[in-house]
Amino acid sequence: MSGAHARGRGSGRTKPAAPKTVTATAMSAGAPAAKSGAKLDLAGEITASLVVFLVALPLCIGVAVASGVPAELGIISGVIGGLVVGAVRGSTLQVSGPAAGLAALVAETVLEHGVATLGVIVLFSGILQIVLGVVRLGRMFQAISLAVVQGMLAGIGLPLMFSQVYPMADAKAPGTPIENMAGVPGLFADILTDPQAMIATLLGVATIVLSFVWKKMPGPAKKIPAALVAVGIGIAVAALPGVDVKTLQVGNLLASVRLPGAEQFAGLADAAILTSILTFTVIASAESLFTAAAVDRMHSGPRTRYNTELIAQGAGNTVAGILGALPITAVVARSSANVQAGAKTRISRTLHGLWLLAFALLLPQVLALIPISVLAGVLVHSGWKLFAPEEFPKMWRQDRGEFVVMTVTTVVIVATALLEGVLIGLAAGIVLAALRMSQTVIRQHVEDDTAKVVMAGNATFLRLPQVIEALESAAASGKPRIRLDLTGVTHLDHACRNQVEEFTAQQRGLGLRVELLMPGPAKQTRTTPEPAPAPTPPPPAPGPDAEWFYLDTGPVPTEATGYAQRPPLVG
Fold first, then answer.
1. Span 440-523 CATH architecture
2. Does the chain have fewer CB atoms within 10 Å around its N or its C terminus?
3. Residue 342, Cβ neighbours under 10 Å: how many?
4. What is the pLDDT of residues 303-319, one digit of tens each?
5. Which pLDDT score, from 0 to 100, does residue 72 have?
6. What 8-state DSSP symbol labels residue 58?
7. What is the pairing mode between strands 329-330 and 569-570?
8. Cβ–Cβ contacts within 10 Å for residue 416, how many?
9. Are 406 and 424 a contacting pair, CB within 8 Å?
10. What pLDDT is recorded for position 537?
11. pLDDT in tens, 193-209
12. Helix or strand run (H / E) with residue 485
């Protein structure tokens, strides 16, 4: 099961205003609205929780194995993610547990400091997360573009599919996503020569097909989760004579709990351990809240309360640290399964933790009947839904710049890891936004003895090459006068301003007459004084038979005009 994890996507007009108000309320405070207008579907929540349980179980075991710790510690972290984090009102549908995004870091930490010290690191990372949530730093993670979110989901879904192809054939995944992809042809060759691997693969394929078509079944049968049906079929096939496929094996949870002692707490004086605490805190917080932004886009229910969710993640990691378990983050694969299964409240994600605990403690023999290939098939289906290949051509048609950001995010996540991919995707999105905001229109022409350059829009350092080219072209025209009109520029940053002023001073030093008009009337510089305004002529004298009346023509004239300080008389 080492491959069983994802690499961690107000004028009085009341009628027009009403729909907008309702929409804003539904999006920002969906929970109260849902409670007041909708009836709780407890059966639907239980069904969704079972689906999430079936997705979470192999992930918990796979992440634990990949992290170099006993599989039971992964299940303990999954239980905490459901019962502790799931019970807090941070996010409604986001599901937490051990995540593959931290597996490499956990494995390195365990190798260097030991499993017992891992508990202390996770404990204090949780406390630090709670502090960050209390000081309200969670909101900053909402600044993430749709292209980055979709790229993140695709970057998680694609490696998830390829990693689960191996356990679907009762084989071990080579390791990284790139290695998993490259090893698929060899895997297929092995399947064709091994009858038992063929049976396991067929069970996984049947699970994937059921996941896609089961909702189209007529009658009440379609209300049963496809994953549950697939598990039932898998258990029946695995029990047949001559069938020898791998099944889940879970040991004693209570015996796996390792409370940190005084020796481990004394390690807090080590700078390396303090660095690990900060590293775990940053990565776990970023992954959880980036995932929250992605999950919020999957449904129309209540939005995530980012600071509260950060506190919830901290509470979960604090408990996990005390029990010596793996660190916890929000996980897209489980959250996506939760949304797709029709969950509407926190009940489903909390119950999934209860199922993990109950089966691992009370019914481990039942888990031992479930073929690993069936659970791998469930995860392949979840990976495909996350990858959503149809979103790429759709984004290409809508916005090719955003398509590039989305593709870059996906590729980097697949090649490296979740956090690195999201950060590079965000950087690409910022560069794209800066280029689009820095739209400078430059017009050049020669009129009589004057070379004119007119600029409009946003002139920033990103457009400095075009600005320099226009200025040099004006200087090379050979005209004795240069007119630079920047009054249409809405934003002029320091780099462009400095370039224009240096050019002006240089050309004046060469004897040219340069007229520079900067944005804003107070910043205009001219080579010739403005002509004085012509005096306003006095009104004509009225005739002897004229009838007089007052006409309000606006502001009262001043004494400087020579008129009386009252509305003028008009005949």
1. 2-Layer Sandwich (3.30)
2. C
3. 15
4. 999 999 999 999 999 99
5. 92
6. H
7. unpaired
8. 16
9. no
10. 57
11. 999 999 999 999 999 99
12. strand 481-492
Of 363, 292, 304, 383, give the one whose Cα is nearest residue 55. 383
30 CB-contact burial (10 Å; exposed 0-12 / middle 13-18 / buried 19+): middle
Nearest one of 327, 346, 309 to 34, comparing CA atoms: 346
**Location of each CATH 3.30.750.24 domain in the chain:** 440-523
Handedness of CA 258, 263, 267, 268 (dihedral sign): positive
| Range list of H helices, 341-475 | 347-362, 364-367, 372-387, 391-398, 400-415, 418-437, 464-475
Q: From CA 371, how far away is CA 83, in angstroms rounded?
A: 26
Nearest to 158 by CA among 432, 391, 429, 341: 391
Cβ–Cβ < 8 Å for 168, 376: yes
Q: Which residues contact 500 (CB under 8 A, 6 or more apart)?
A: 467, 471, 484, 486, 492, 516, 518
CA distance 122 to 322: 8
For the residues 118-137, what does the mean pLDDT come to? 94
Please name the amino acid found at residue 550. Answer: Y
